[in-house]
From TrEMBL:
Gene3D superfamilies found in the cross-reference section: 3.40.50.360
GO molecular-function terms, A-Z: oxidoreductase activity
Species lineage: Bacteria, Bacillati, Bacillota, Clostridia, Lachnospirales
Name of the protein in question: NAD(P)H-dependent oxidoreductase
InterPro entries noted in UniProt: Flavoprotein-like_sf (IPR029039), FMN-dep_NADH:Q_OxRdtase_AzoR1 (IPR050104), FMN_Rdtase-like_dom (IPR005025)
Domain NADPH-dependent FMN reductase-like intervals: 1-143
Amino acid sequence: MKILLVDGGPRKGNTWNIAMKVRDELNKLSPDIEWKELHLSDINLPLCIGCSMCFRKGHSYCPHNEMVQEILNSIDESDGIIYAAPTYNLSVPAISKNLIDHICYALHRPRYFTKKALVISSTGGVGASKTTKYLAGTLAGIGFNHCFQLPVSTSSWNAYQISPKVKQKIERISKKFYLDLAFKKLHAPSFGVLIPFNLIRGMSITCRPGSEYEAADGTFWQQEGYVDQVYAPGIPLPFYKKLFGKLMYQIAISAFKNKAVTYKK
Ligand SMILES: Cc1cc2nc3c(=O)[nH]c(=O)nc-3n(C[C@H](O)[C@H](O)[C@H](O)COP(=O)(O)O)c2cc1C
């Protein structure tokens, strides 16, 4: 089992200590886990400049693609990821938001349908749940099959000692994450995932190859064959969610009937 551990903060502080404890727990459950660490603070990824080349032409046209591609390769090679980021102003720190901006085109072209994640955030007092929810939502949007959340309130700037209660929480969530990975259990997507998937599926028709505002999204949905699917093949979907997805798709088709997403040519 391969796990990518992403350090999504600017320093190794409280959040990283919690992530290390999670890693210890997982190693106790299985000593064979292959770990890879990614420290965003070591990479110096320049700020996303908003050129939208990733959305329009493809992510390989991003001016920072070399760095971003390496991160994507690390995700591709893993069975699951642990993403650890502190809470800054009730959300992720800028260094994490910058990575998310670089890869959020994948919300339009989701992948990673069999991968699992555990997101961790620590906060001084409030906001860690908001941060993990935001991270989990983003990962689900780019296709991740299941995402566990570990928000922790520390009352500390840099000297957090893990309390017995949080230790128990860490043990519980590490076990759940491990079992989900080990048994390769595939979960049905939530309504919150089916909505963007099917709206973007419908929207992709407006930018399919040969259309006036042809874009990478249009090519992707056609090429992958997802344009005819309510969700990715192989992922369980109860009939009521299939109906819901179809409805979302129809809404997108009528909303984008006489509309295209334009850009300067
Ligand atoms: C820039 C900055 C913003 C912060 N924003 C919040 C906040 O919104 N809510 C909060 O309760 N604590 C906040 N804190 C405190 C941190 O979330 C808390 O100390 C956290 O455990 C730090 O994790 P770290 O040691 O991994 O960086 C903030 C700290 C910094 C440096």
